Write the C-alpha cells for this entry.
Amino acid sequence: MKVRRSYLAVPAAILLFALLFVGCNDNSLITEPESGLSVKAALEKITYEDEAVNSFEPNFNEEDAMNILGSGLAKTIYPLRVGQVIHLVERDLQIEYGADTALGTLTKRFEGELLILGALQDSTNVPDTLVKKPFTTVMTRKIKYERVDSTGDNLVDWKIIGMSLPEAGTSTDNIAITKITLTTLEGNSITITSPNDFFFDLGRRLMTGEQAMMGGNPGYGQNSGMGMHGNNQNNGGQHNYNNGNAYGNRGMYGMIPYIRKREPITITVEVKSIYEEPDFVAVTHGASIINKGNRVKERFELIDTQFDGVYYIRTYEKTIITNTMPGFMHAVVNMLPQGVIKDTDTPVEEKTWGIPYLIQ
C-alpha cells in the first residue's frame, strides 16, 4: 500500500508544479495590492469615486436645453428652454497633510455649451432655433480627510469626513452669488456666505446606523457638525454651529442635510450684478449618479432689489420639492445675466453654487 501511494503522489506533484508554472507566467494573475497605494493616490481614488462628492455633476451637466418650470422669461429672442452641456477636461487634487488629517482642494475645469432653444416670434411657443454658446468654467471645493485605522492599506485607513460646497463660474466680476439660505418646512435654516469655507460634516460615515440616528456629533474641528437646527451660519469666520437637525432624533446622515422624500425646501439666494435687468437665476436638482431621469430645472422668483451705487443687490427665492429617489444629490444654483440668454452675441457669464443633500 505504501508503494501505491507513492506512485499516486508523483503525478499529483507534477500536476501541482505545472499549475504553479503556468500561474507564475500568466501576467493577468499578478495584481498589485491596494495597500501599495500611496496616501496621495489613495485619497485621489477615494475622492474621485465618492458618491457624495461626485453627485454635483449630474445636476451641473444638464445634457440638454431644459424646460424651465416656474414664471416665464421676459422674451427678446424668446427663449423657451435653457440648459448646458459640460465636459470635464482637467481635474487636480492638491492636499495639505497633517499627522492624521488632510485637507484637499479639488479643482475641475469644464468646457461647456449653453443651449438656448427659442422662437423667433413672440406669438408662438414652438421653438424654431437653437443657439449654442461655448464657455469655460472652473469648479473648486475643499475636502477633509482623516486617518481612521492603521491597517497599512491607505484605501481603508483614510476616509472623507467633510466637504465644502462646490463653487464654479466663468472668469468675470460682473455677477456673483453672495449668499444662500436653506429653510425647512419647520422654519429651521442654514445660511452660507462662503461656499469653500463652509463644510458639511461626513464624520457619521464612521458611526453605526443607530449612533447616527441618535443625533451624536463626532466633532471634527471648528467647521463641523452643521445641522439644520436653529440658525447655523458661516459669515466670514463667525460660526454658530448647533448640533442636531431639523427632525429631532431622526438624524441626518453625515450632517449633510437629510431631507425627506417629497419634502419642500425653500432656497433663498442673494446675488450682486452690474446689470440693471434682473438676472436669470435657476436651480437644477433631482438627479443622482445612479438616476438622472428625475432632473428638474426651476427658475427663482425675484423678491427684492437694492442698488449700492455699483451693483444691484437682488434676492431670489424658490421652494423646491424633493423627489422620491434616495441617494446623495446636489441642488445646483446657476446665475446668468439676462443678456446672455436674450442676445446671440453676448458671451456667457455664469456663477454656480452646489448644495449637497441626502434623500433617504
Residues 35-359 form one domain. DSSP finds seven helices and 19 strands in the chain. Residues 334 and 352 are 5 Å apart (CA to CA). The chain has one domain: 35-359.
